[in-house]
Design brief:
single chain, five-stranded parallel beta sheet, 16 strands
Length: 632
Amino acid sequence: MADKKKILVKAPVKTRYLKNAVSEKVTYLELPSDLEQYSLEEDMKKGGVQFKEIEELTRKKKLSRVISLSADSIEMGLMAVTYLAMHLLKRELCEGTSFEVWDDLPFDSEFEEDDEKWTESKMRIPVIYISEISRFLRKDEIPFDSGGFLMAQAQEKNSHQPYWRFCTHEPVCIMVQRESVDSDCVDSINLFAKNSNVFVLFLENKDENDRFMDELPFGLIDAEHFRALRNNFILSLASDAAEVSFGKNDRNLYYRNVLRQNIRQRDIKVKRGFSYERVVNLAGSVDKTSICEMLDKIINYALKDVDDTESIVFQNSTFDFIDHFTRASSESREGKKGRTLMETNLFGLSEIKQQVYDVINVMKYNQMRSRMNIGGSHYHNVHVMLGAPGTAKTTVAKYMGMMMFDEKLLPDNRFICINGAELKGMYVGHSAPKTKALFEKYDVIIIDEAYSIVEYDGKTDSFGNEAIAQLIIEMEKHSTDKLIIFAGYGGKNVSEKDNRMQAFLDANPGIKSRITSTFYFDSYSADEMAQIFVKIAKISNYKVQPGTEKIVKEFFEKRVKDKDFGNGREARVLLENAVLFAARRTMAQNKEAYTENELKTLTAEDIKSAAEKMNLSFGMNRKEYKRIGFTV
C-alpha cells in the first residue's frame, strides 16, 4: 500500500441484521483498519473545506465526551463522525495507556451476519436514530383493550430490548432529525452516560430518501425550532460542537477530488481529457444526498465487465451507461431539446441554423468514423460568432451546446457566457488559473467581446498575454470535448475601423489558427423585428390587438438605421414599455376585479405610447452625443 495519505471516498457505512427474534437491523460505521493511511488534513488540502470546524476540534487538547455535529446531509455528517472517531482512537493509541488497547481492536474480523447480538468495538460505531430511542422510552404508553390483543402486543414489545441498550462502553452515533423530540432529547442521550464518546448528528434538512430509515419522521418541526433545540442540547450537556457544510463554490471541487482518489486507490488510469466533473454531475443527477457513495457505485458498475488481468483505463465514454439519468434530468429542466428550442424561439437566422446543423452533422459523422477505428476523425469544436449586439449570438451558442449534448457529442451542457475582460486576473499569475478553471467547470464556453482581452489597438498587456497563452493550451486540450466560441462585434458589413473582432483575431494567430468556422449574424430588418415583438409578447402571455403590427414596424424602420440599434433586445424593451402603459391604463380604472382578458391585452395605444417614449429617449441620447463631440 502506498505511503501517501488518503481521503475518505465515502462514509464507511454498513448494515447487518441480527439473527434474533425480531431480525433487528443494525447500521454502523466501520472504521478502516489502516488508520494511519487516512488524514483529515489531507482531505482539507483536497478541497474538504466543509470539515474546517472538525479539524479545529481535533486540535483541542481535550474533547467533550458528547460531541454535537450539524450537517447538511447524512453522508457528510457520517464522514465527519468517522474522522473524529479515528482521531480519538489514534490519540488514545498514541497516548499508549497500554498496548492491550491496540491488540483488542478487531482489525481482521467483521461483524458476522449470523450473530444474535451486537458486540461492542472501538472500530464499529452504531448509528441510532433518536426517534427510535424516543419510541422505546414511550413504549409503556401503549393503551390496552379488554380483549387483550394490544396488551399481548405490548408485552411482546416490552420483552425485547433493542441492541443499542447493550452499547454501554464504546462510541455511538445518535442521529437527530427535525422531529418532535423536545422533551426526550437530553434524556435519550443520558441512556449512554457511560459510553466513551457519543456523537450526536443534527440533520436540519428533511430527507425523504434517507436510506437508513424504514419510515419518514413524524411531527416535523420548523428549522428555527430545531436550531433552538440543538443549541439547548449543546448547552445542557456542555458538548463540543461543529458544523459540516460546504461554501458556495466548494462542493464540486471536493467531489472531483473524491472521485480522483477513488480511481487512484483502484490503480485505474484515465485517458487524457477525462472529465471528472462530468462523472460528478452524473452521480449528483442520480442521488444528490449521497454523491460520494454514488460515485463509488458508478465506478463499480463500470468495472463489472472488466477482466481483472487487464490494465484498466477510464475515458469519457466509459460512463455513457448512465447518460440517460442526466439526460432525463436535463430535459425536465429545459422542457424541450435544443433543436426544438432553436426552431421555436429564434425567428429567421436560417443560414445560421443550417450552419449549426452542419457542425452537428460533421461531429456525428466523425464520431461514427472513430467508432469504426477510421483514423483522422477529428473536428475542432472552436468557432467565432460575429455580429452586432442583440443578434442572438449567445442564444444560438446555448442551443448549439444543448443539441451537442442531446446527440452525445458533449459530456454535459453546462453553459457560461463570460466577457473577455473577466479572464484577466487581478495580479500577475492570476489569469492562467482563472482561465483554466473555466474549462474545468463548463462544457459550453462563449467568450463575449473577446477583443477586451487585448487593448483597443490590438496590443496585449501582461495579464492579457497570460490569459491568451492559457486559452491556447485549453483549446488544444479540449477542442473535441467542449464547445468553445469567441463572440463580439464584427462581420462582413462592419467598417475596418469598427471590426474589433477581426483586429483581435489578427493580433492572436495562435487563437485564429485553432478556429474551425465563423458565424456571421446580420442585423434584423424592420419586418423581422415586428415578428419578434409579436412572438415575445405571445411567450409572455400577452395578446396584441390587431392593427398594432403597423405601429411596431414603423418604429423599427427608423431604429434599424441607427448606429446604436440593439436588434432583438429592443423588441423586449418595447414590450416592457408597452406593459408599463397597459398597467397605467388598467389600474386607472380602479376596479375591484379584473378579467383575465383585461390583464393580457396590449392595445395599439399602449404600444404607440411605448414607441414614443423610446423615441424620446433615443433623441435625448443623440443630443448628448453631439454635446460631447460624437456624431451619430
